[in-house]
Amino acid sequence: MSTKIHFELHLISDAETGCGLGNEVVNDLLARDHEGRPVLRGTHLKGLLRAEIEAISAARGWSRAVCDVCFGRGGEGGDDGMIGFVRIADCRPVSEAGTHTIVRTRLTDLGVVHGSTLRTTEAVSAGTVFRGRVQLAEGAPLVVDLAVRLALMNLGAVGGGRTRGSGACRVDVAGENSEPGALLRTLDDVVRGGIPEPAPRPCARVKRASAESPATLLRLIFHAEDPVCCPEIPIGGTNVIRSGLGIPASAVLGAVISRLAQGDAALADETMGDPRTRAWPLLPVALPGDACAGLPVRVALSHRMSKLPDATDRHEFRDAAVEPYDWRTVASSSPLKGTDGVLLRADDGSVVLWRGGDMPRVVSAHAVHHGGRNLFTVEAMAPMIFSGWISLPVRAADALRRGLEVSSGVAFGKSRTVRGGGRLEIADASWSDAVHGWHDRVFVLQSPAAIPDDWDLAADSAEAALDRLVRESGWGRVAPKDPGGSDLRVVSQASCAVRFGWNRHGVGPGVGDSRQLKARRVFLPGTVFVLEQPPSDLTGQMVRGLGVQKEGDADGRLQGLGAVLPHPGIASRRYAPTPRPVEISSDGAGLWAIEWWRASGKAGPSASQISALCERIRGADGAAALDYLKGQSARPDRTWDRWKSVSRLVESAIIADAARARQALRTWQDLTIIHRGDEER
Q1: Distances, alpha carbon 297 to alpha carbons 501, 515, 528, 577, in Å
Q2: What is the three-state SS of 78-100?
Q3: Rounded to 5 degrees, what are φ and ψ at 93?
Q4: Which helix (H) or strand (E) segment is 652 a member of?
Q5: Helices 142-154 and 180-192, interaxial angle, to 10°?
Q6: Nearest to 83 by CA among 100, 93, 95, 69
Q7: Are 420 and 414 in contact (CB under 8 A)?
Q8: Vertex 103, ends 99 and 108: CA angle to 5°?
Q9: CA–CA separation, 344 vs 29, rounded Å?
Q10: If you write DSSP's letter for every residue of 213-226 in order, what string do you get?
Q11: What per-residue confidence (pLDDT) applies to 229?
Q12: 643 neighbors 605 (Cβ within 8 angstroms)
């Protein structure tokens, strides 16, 4: 069972917890979550804790093993390295965090501003309390627990500008009653007694097994608690890591096999070699707090949506693979455009499209100091609910159920010590009931499908190669093109590319002695094919997937390749998250906010103007806010007219209780944003 260390970080001075990105006005914006709330990134906190442990180790004469057992060590020259026991999540404020901007510059010897030195950064106000957790993996030795607690209590500042006094903080560790000195003495005794060598990471090997019973299909639901980054393509020359819109099937199978190997290595080996083993990607189905909108399917290449809504605020959806259409019937003012995302099939049979561009993401940029690497920009999927399928032999399915009941924590994607964490659970769902009413002849590729290396495709089109792969994979014949003659009336669409990767289980054709896999020609997810006749054994064919089975793993099943799902149907609407209710307290702040909102009406101050006033209130000091409010009367009429009806009310509230007025301004700002959103809709 893993251990969680909970703590609260109290800011004593303003903290510049930047995300590494800026705009035309601010050079460094605060790190924020997908809802705009300031956060303290787990990557930053991990670096600070590592620095603290390294400093303590150097002062006490300890070896580097203390830091390695906590945070791991990268592999070099074929060495797998060492996996750390510490996992750190983003820290979030306990209550609403105040923010403001800090402007700095450098003066010349003459006392004037030095050219090009003006810099503006965002900061979180002193007094903000962040709440976070550090999770220790199962089997973590005592030295890890003690070292992390001591490093947290020894943490004196966070964010940028720490040498100038920014970000000074105090950390309270929940349940920790020992003084730092006592912790240090205990830790020193443990280190002197010897640091245990971590057990090697469980690594399954393919042990061939024969399928004697039907596969057990399980529906997996992953509740992400942190941003998830699962890139679909390698890092380019710009060092930008961009996540795909789901968790690949290879990552899902790898996590399940690793979980099985922790409890029963032999069972993991048999599961890897069992032809009933197949994973599908985990795709987004809802935002946190929402009910799952349905069963997800990666949208087909043939699925299209109108660019603009009609007079009733609805979009038009078409799919040439499901229902051929005449492009001349589409309004020229709103052409149909290709979409990327997921189709969600609800229990009532309706289909919802959640576009990839509408899914929230979190972008950050940071420099990696350890190892001498450069600046990285990471675009990760925001915490969401993901869902998918996995097929396992009965013994493995039962073992997975028992294991998740004991501990459901798992992490996916890159930098799993600071991203991708959450809870994995198995939902009660029947495969036959789930796909009832779905198209039984139209199928959509969910993960890349390997094209055999010995195929010469120089003279073939992508659709011709797909037709051949479908037939040789046992699916039957692909239906011919619709005889209507229109180029849009096609029954299949294919897209090809080259993909490669690596895995530590050594599965798949590799490059030399490394764990890197050689490049493979593949069909990309979203490829759609239509059969002349439905498969006689749909479940069995889904487990076999799309790929020519040969000796070894030529079809790439254990690399997550070839996962296919039936087409759920044409979307009827876009996915819309459930509106979050606005809670307004009945105290003075809530009543003030409602009074100002009603008094100002539609022509009142904008949300940004209210925010500018709010940021000028520091604790109980509202002098700067009063000056700002008075200055609005000297501005052009169109600006002053926004404040005129409510200026005296706000001024009186700031004079009476500046701290409560600040809370009321934030609530007023929220009401303004909501009202503006309603008008736009």
Answers
A1: 24, 31, 12, 18
A2: CCCCECCCEEECCEEECCCCCEE
A3: -65, 145
A4: helix 647-656
A5: 150
A6: 69
A7: yes
A8: 165
A9: 35
A10: S--EEEEEEEEESS
A11: 93
A12: yes
> What does pLDDT average to over the chain?
83
* CA dist 593 → 100, 323, 519, 661, 662 (Å): 21, 52, 60, 9, 10
| DSSP sequence for 254-291 | HHHHHHHHHH-HHHHHHHHH-TT-EE--BEEEE-TTSP
User: Shortest CA distance to 281 belongs to which of 245, 233, 227?
Assistant: 245
The DSSP element (H or E) to which 149 belongs, if any, is helix 142-154
Alpha-carbon torsion (49, 54, 57, 58), positive or negative = negative
- Tell me, letter by letter, the H, E, C secondary structure of 36-58: CCECECHHHHHHHHHHHHHHHHH
Q: What is the pLDDT of residue 12?
A: 93
Check: CB of residue 413 under 8 Å from CB of residue 243.
Answer: yes
- DSSP secondary structure, 387-433, as one string: EEEEEE-HHHHHHHHHHHHH--EEE-SS-TTTSSEEEEEEE---HHH
Q: Are strands 351-355 and 573-574 parallel, antiparallel or unpaired?
A: parallel
* Burial (CB count <10 Å: 0-12, 13-18, 19+), residue 567: buried
DSSP 161-202: -GGGTTTBEEEEETT--S-HHHHHHHHHHHHHT-PPPPPPPP
CB 4 within 8 A of CB 148: no
Q: What token pair was written down for 61?
A: 């004469």
SS (H, E, C) 293-335: CCEEEECCCCEEEECCCCCCCCCCEEECCCCCCCHHHCCCCCC
Angle subtended by helix axes 142-154 and 42-60, to nearest 10: 100
Give me the residue spans of the domains in the chain. 3-192, 216-297+346-434, 588-680
- Calpha distance 8→91 (Å, rounded): 9
Identify the DSSP state of 648: H
Farthest-apart Cα atoms in the chain, separation: 87
To which residue do tokens 């106000």 refer?
Answer: 125
What is 334-361 written as a DSSP string? Answer: S-EEE--EEEEE-TTS-EEEEEGGGS-E
Whether the CB-CB separation of 31 and 38 falls below 8 Å is answered with: yes
- Record the pTM: 0.82
Residues in the chain: 681
CA 515 to chain CA centroid, nearest Å: 26
Least confident of 447-456, 515-524, 566-575, 579-588: 579-588
CATH number of 3-192: 3.30.70
Domains 3-192 and 216-297+346-434 alike in fold: yes
Q: pLDDT digits over 210-269, tens only?
A: 656 778 899 999 999 999 999 887 666 667 888 999 999 999 998 999 889 888 888 988
CATH architecture of 216-297+346-434: 2-Layer Sandwich (3.30)
Neighbour count for residue 61 (Cβ, 10 Å): 9
Average pLDDT over residues 148-177: 91
Asked whether 161 and 167 are in contact (CB, 8 A), the reply is yes
Report which of 45, 40, 34 is spatially closest to residue 19, judged by C-alpha positions: 40
Report the sign of the C-alpha dihedral through residues 380, 385, 390, 396, in that order.
positive
- The values of phi and psi at residue 295, to 5°, are -85, 130
State mean pLDDT over 177-203.
82
For residue 498, the cross-strand partners are 521
